[in-house]
Amino acid sequence: MDVxxxxxxxxxxxxxxxxxxxxxxxxxxxxxxxxxxxxYDAEIADPDVHRVLYEDGEIMFLEVxxxxxxxxxxxxxxxxxxxxxxxxxxxxTAGVAMKDVLLDEKGxxxxxxxxxxxxxxxxxxxxxxxxxxxxxxxxxNKSDVPVHFYRIEFRRLDGDEIxxxxxxxxxxxxxxxxxxxxxxxMDSIAAAPDNYHLLYEDGHVRLLEVGIRPxxxxxxxxxxxxxxxxxxxxxxxxxxxxxxxxxPPPAVLxxxxxxxxxxxxxxxxxxxxxxxxxxxxxxxxxxxxDGEGYRTNWRKWxxxxxxxxxxx
Length: 312
Fold this sequence. Notes:
This protein is mainly beta and 312 residues long. 11% of the residues lie in helices and 30% in strands. It has five helices and 17 strands. It has helices spanning 3-13, 42-45, 162-169, 188-191, 294-301, and strands at 50-55, 59-66, 75-77, 81-85, 98-102, 115-117, 127-131, 134-141, 147-154, 196-201, 205-212, 221-223, 227-231, 245-247, 259-263, 266-269, 279-286. Strand 10 and strand 11 form a beta hairpin. The radius of gyration is 19 Å and the shape is globular. The model is unreliable at 1-23 (pLDDT under 50).
């Protein structure tokens, strides 16, 4: 059983404390000249704040929680990222008032040039952010509620190379899609399982990997949840729907990726990829949007956040 299957199985059981035991054996190749040692990597330096929900050779999916007053350890992120948020105020990354203490105030990775994506038309959430690598920092939560969001780190930016290397990077897409018969529900993972792979799921979110081969038309399917779509490669089309919010790539280092879109739930539709490269991206879907209810319900929804001070 591969890492993907192990993590999904554990999440269904709610056994989050053992996810680390199934983590993929991945090599560390920081992007863009990031030179800080691995001891500062967020999941190593402060794993209480950065919970690894899923990882493989291409991505790491983190749940980030930072309660008020927590002594967060100095940490960094060596890869470009997309953030997904479903609570908090304002069009910024954390959604609350924060103060960052920086290890290297003159370093090149201190939060410059991040791209902010608004929610889909008619909704308050989700929102998304694109970022380059982030140097070691110590975020201090100055509000009265915990910071909470999700983060995909891209270990590789596929970019335009996906057109020639996709068969090596994503061998599962070499196989032709198979017809799906007698689908009682239109949810994408049931109606189009060759295109939408479930990587992780819990009571709040689920993470899907999406792949649509060149020339392929997907089966008819729907998306029941609002989502953030995270891209690390050229995208001939996408299924974000009308009114999608869009964040540009980070405005530093001549970056063209990552990109992110925000999407409302969508009814039944098909997608045709008429390009010569596959459409490949990730969907962070919110089964529950915390929104304004987060302030009064965070202790019920995330009871472990109350005790993070004592997990040190």
